[in-house]
Design goal:
64 residues; alpha+beta; SH3 type barrels; five-stranded antiparallel beta sheet
Length: 64
Amino acid sequence: MEKEIEMAIRRGHQLFVQNLDGESITGIPEKSDDPGTLKMRTVYGSMWIPLDEVGYLSRLIHIR
């Protein structure tokens, strides 16, 4: 999972994240000072998600 996050940060891809409760968030990941937390920029603002609460993660790649 960490590799996918790192690749998305480097390449500017969006992430689709679903937590263990079933809530989903889509946004652009950013570097976080805390290695156990995923920081994402969404349309609602910045969010921090603990990695141990992530149930599903997928990179969204736009083909032009």
